[in-house]
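Q: My collaborator sent me two sequences in one message, no labels, and asked for predicted structures for both. Can we handle them in order? The first one she listed is below.
A: Yes, handling them in the order given. First sequence, followed by its structure tokens:
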Amino acid sequence: MLGKSMSINIMKSSTILQLGLGTKVLRDIQHYWDPGYQLTDQNIGCALICASNKLHLLQDNGDLDPYYAATFVRSAGGGNYQISCLSPSFIS
């Protein structure tokens, strides 16, 4: 349920449908937090970066802002597991 809540916030904040990234990306976002789920569309990265930018989760250099990302995850009821899922995706 938690992952679904965060996924809905990401989808609402982004222009994923307007970008024409397709339904596979939407499915990937919906299931992103499910342990063991394998991403199916290579455009998921573009969608997550777009949404992160609109949610003001990125620093000026494009890196994920750890404080704002953690705040976003916790505001949706998430914890350290969900935060750890974001970090490798955006922080190099």
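Q: And the one she listed second?
A: Here it is, processed independently of the first:
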Amino acid sequence: MIEAYKDGGKHDQVFGSEDFEDLDKTEENKKRVRLFLVEVLQNHATEKFSEYVADDIISHQHEIADGSSAYQEYLQENNVEYDFIFKVIGHGNYVVAYSQALINSRAYAVFDIFRLQAGKIVERYAVTEPIPAKTELTNSGKF
């Protein structure tokens, strides 16, 4: 079943590196990701993008090609702005962030998984889900 899932081309949203490394750098990596999210994606300090993201970043989000320039283009073309970063957790070279972002002025819950190497983001997985309008909620919503 899992073999049938592989698409044979572009990186998918499931498969990637499975090895945890740099366990002693967990806190440092969490701090780097939080700074990237706040400084670049929330406060629009786009000139700092390359301080956090490797040139050859691997993207597991089908809308974004590999490479930092493709990631930056996606962010700009879709007016991506992180509104709130709720939780950042990590284990070694992997860091997960749960956030609310605006993508083309629509609110989304975003679950980012980053893999870091030498202090830079080298791989990114993302799951996004639109947040319904408050009038459409049957409970208190995602947050």
